[in-house]
Amino acid sequence: MEKGRLEAFSDGIFAIAATLLVLEITVPHLEEGGSLGRALLDLWPSYLAYGTSFLTIGIMWVNHHSVFRQIGETDHRFLFINLGLLMLIAFVPFPTVLLARYAWGGNGEAAALAYGTTLTITALFFNLLWRYAAWDNRLLRPDADPVEVSGISRAYLPGPFMYGGATLVALVSPEASAALFLAVALFYVGSSSFFGSDEAAET
Amino acid sequence: MEKGRLEAFSDGIFAIAATLLVLEITVPHLEEGGSLGRALLDLWPSYLAYGTSFLTIGIMWVNHHSVFRQIGETDHRFLFINLGLLMLIAFVPFPTVLLARYAWGGNGEAAALAYGTTLTITALFFNLLWRYAAWDNRLLRPDADPVEVSGISRAYLPGPFMYGGATLVALVSPEASAALFLAVALFYVGSSSFFGSDEAAET
Amino acid sequence: MEKGRLEAFSDGIFAIAATLLVLEITVPHLEEGGSLGRALLDLWPSYLAYGTSFLTIGIMWVNHHSVFRQIGETDHRFLFINLGLLMLIAFVPFPTVLLARYAWGGNGEAAALAYGTTLTITALFFNLLWRYAAWDNRLLRPDADPVEVSGISRAYLPGPFMYGGATLVALVSPEASAALFLAVALFYVGSSSFFGSDEAAET
Amino acid sequence: MEKGRLEAFSDGIFAIAATLLVLEITVPHLEEGGSLGRALLDLWPSYLAYGTSFLTIGIMWVNHHSVFRQIGETDHRFLFINLGLLMLIAFVPFPTVLLARYAWGGNGEAAALAYGTTLTITALFFNLLWRYAAWDNRLLRPDADPVEVSGISRAYLPGPFMYGGATLVALVSPEASAALFLAVALFYVGSSSFFGSDEAAET
Questions:
Q1: Can you tell me the distance from the alpha carbon of D81 to that of C93, in angstroms, rounded to the nearest whole number?
Q2: SS3 at position C140
Q3: Is D16 in contact with A12 (CB distance < 8 Å)?
Q4: Taking each helix axis from N to C terminus, what angle separates D108-134 and D158-169, rounded to the nearest 10 degrees?
Q5: CA–CA separation, B42 vs B30, rounded Å?
Q6: Alpha-carbon distance C71 to C79, whole Å?
Q7: Rounded to the nearest 10 degrees, what angle do helices C146-156 and C44-70 cross at?
Q8: How confident is the prediction for chain C on average, in pLDDT?
Q9: Which residues, in sequence order, are CB contacts of A143 under 8 Å at separation 6+?
Q10: Which chains pack against D, by 3+ Cβ pairs within 8 A?
């Protein structure tokens, strides 16, 4: 299995999962005399959930490339850890609908738990993928930069804890939990935009 | 992040968003004795909305490449501006259904406003993406053609105003607004077909 | 616009349109005591429609590559003719559902007409795309093989007539028309498998 | 038809089919006072079916590449055998829904038979694709490794029998049949992870 083909397949799954998210936004069926404008405003939890999941999948795609940029070869275990990761990414649209429909209603707890559990396991798989490849330089490029390698190891560590924490918050307040998932994504975008710009890569 | 990979991911989102549009066309459920032919003709707003959005996404894909052709490197901010743009492109199928179902009925105003607002924000993001990259030649190729660069800057400027204008028309006539979105797309196709043919690129 | 990127985008649309076809096959909702096996057998028109459209899109994808193999450059008109072609390909899932649900029932005529009209217009666009590129060698590779070029011109000519003819048959018998669309696809697969094998291309 | 383009198109269909699987998981509509958490737990057959099909499609994608790695050229018959294979892969989401909804209920037999028949025919097509290419070295690379070639021939042979056997089990117990499909996938992942790691490929 060449690395390039594995990347292209993974990119495809990331892109399709992100684009399928829009199908979760239900077009309102209006009652006689109902106002479409009002119905569209009432869909705000769907827009929030769409934005949260799209950003989160986008960030995970960026991270996936950070991993693959350091990889020089692949083996079957790496292949299947990656397949497990993709299975979770492709699953995200389902808990996203749950979050959109139920997080701000009476069943918010289960919805936020389902969403958060999915993201937490995904973050665990990311750590597994990276640590399997980086352990003892197993699959790294011969010229992989040790500073960047240990930087990635450090950067991935808090992911499962952050998502796991935001998930546990759902037991107290599903709304706060849902807001935290968005905050995590926005914080990541913000911090890497302001502090990571020097990593610009020439083509 | 290499530019090629970013392009491939973006292309995937454009292609999927455009192809998902067909799912908005609802297959008619016929009453006893109903005519399928008649029901299919009554779906003309869906065909119009499909054509408008497909062309618009296609044109935005062409513009996305004009931007990337001038780009030599990327940074994290550029990456996330692009992700925001893709989030909007992938969202287009939703307001397209609204336009198809409601633009020519009693709730046309909200539908056309939702559609137009999406396209207007998308056009703003295109300007942001381009101006971020082109400002002070920040991310441009060293050999980027200054004439083409300033040509793109000029060409992208009217986009938000045109879409914003067509959106405001919805307050007076949703039907006219919907027609304008199609007209903008057809005008773009027509003008670049007749005046832009000399830009033919060798492989 | 580089040719490679245009091909990749087109390939994406072909692949997605073909894969979305499966969504048209409705999972049966069983009545109390209903037999799933029987319900699945009753879905045979859906399987036929799926097979017909998948093969047809696959064949059109093969033809699309025959065109692009002879192309050396592109221009804006070619770009938009291609976009029109893709808009039709991405539309195919809709008439496919119509064919699956209605071709073998009381409303077969409109369903087969809608399906056939889509394929006929698609075939016309294929001719337009090719003839625009080949006219006076406008966009052909400098080393394009004249024998292959005139072979493609001849091969594409009958498409609109075959599909148009099969469409008109719907006025007499929608079932025969639906069978003809499948027969055309199978005939193409069969004839190029048995007579075209010498065109094997080295990598 | 160049091999690279055929691979890219095939990869697209594999990726899209796998990602569409998530659409089969129906978001529960709760009765007044219903518990979402309970409803989500009751969906376990959907999660199982999702995991089984995602893994199976992933494994088939890995195998597809094993074939293509040995291929040096293509011909029209190979092209259409591959198209038939893709038609089956893209069909998998449909029997997956059947398995999810019906395998653990009163209509399990037909659901498991439909699922198993699809996988069995897919495995037959895989053998056909490979044996057509490998027969008398018809389409193999000139430098194809004879050991690897006969290894693939041996490895693909049991596929149809394993899937066919698991399908027949449905006549006795649909639940056991469904469990076997998952077991086959997990066994494949496990065995190639533990015994196949030395096949690591440098980039």
A1: 22
A2: strand
A3: yes
A4: 170
A5: 12
A6: 12
A7: 150
A8: 90
A9: none
A10: A, C
Q: Is A29 on the interface with D (CB under 8 A)?
A: no
The string of pLDDT tens digits covering residues C86-125 is: 999 999 999 999 999 998 877 899 999 999 999 999 999 9
d(CA D201, CA D203): 6
Q: Is the dihedral of CA D116, A93, A25, B22 positive or negative?
A: negative
Centroid of chain to Cα A160: 11
Residue ranges for chain A with pLDDT beneath 50: 197-203
Q: Is the CB of residue A87 less than 8 Å away from at least one CB of chain D?
A: yes
CA atoms within 13 A on the CB side of A83: 26
Give me the residue from B4, B17, B98 closest to A27, CB to CB. B98
Please name the residues between 99 and 128 in chain D that touch chain A, using a CB distance below 8 Å: none
Contact A37, B110 (CB under 8 A): yes
Query: Which of B8, B37, B200 lies at the smallest CB-CB distance from C74?
Result: B200
Distance CA B168, CA A20 (A): 30
Q: Which residue type, as a one-letter code, is found at position D74?
A: T
- Structure letter (DSSP) for residue C171: T
Does C23 sit within 8 Å of B19, measured CB to CB?
Answer: no
Q: Which two tokens stand for residue D102?
A: 């019906």
**Token digits for D138?**
């018809």
d(CA D104, CA D184): 19
Q: CA of A54: which chain B residue's CA is closest? A: B87
Q: Taking residues C3-19, what's their average pLDDT?
A: 92
pLDDT of residue B34: 84
> Which of B7, B14, B107 to mutate against chain A (most A CBs within 10 Å)?
B107
User: Which residues in chain B have Cβ-Cβ distances shorter than 8 Å to C14?
Assistant: none
pLDDT at A25: 94
Q: Report how far Cα A39 is from the mean position of its chain's Cα atoms.
A: 29
Nearest to B76 by CA among B4, B6, B153: B6
The CA angle C43-C185-C170, to the nearest 5 degrees, is: 65
Q: What is the pLDDT of residue D19?
A: 96
Mean pLDDT across D57-86 = 92
* Lowest-confidence pick of A30-34, A92-96, B67-71, D85-89: A30-34
pLDDT tens readout for residues C135-167:
888 899 998 888 889 988 988 888 999 999 999
What pLDDT is recorded for position B203? 38
Give dist(CA A126, CA B201) in Å, integer. Answer: 41
Beta strands in chain A (DSSP E): 73-74, 201-202
Among B120, B118, B101, B119, smallest CA distance to B47 is for B101
Q: pLDDT for B125-157, tens place per residue?
A: 999 999 999 988 889 999 888 888 998 898 888
Which residue is associated with the tokens 């406003």? B113
pLDDT value at B199 more than 50: no
For residues B14 and B64, the answer to whether their CB atoms sit within 8 Å is yes
User: Å from B117 to nearest chain C CA?
Assistant: 24
* ipTM score for this prediction: 0.91
Convert C10-33 into a string of H (helix), E (strand) and C (coil). HHHHHHHHHHHHHHHCCCCCCCCC
* Rounded distance between C-alpha atoms, residue C9 and residue B58, angstroms: 10
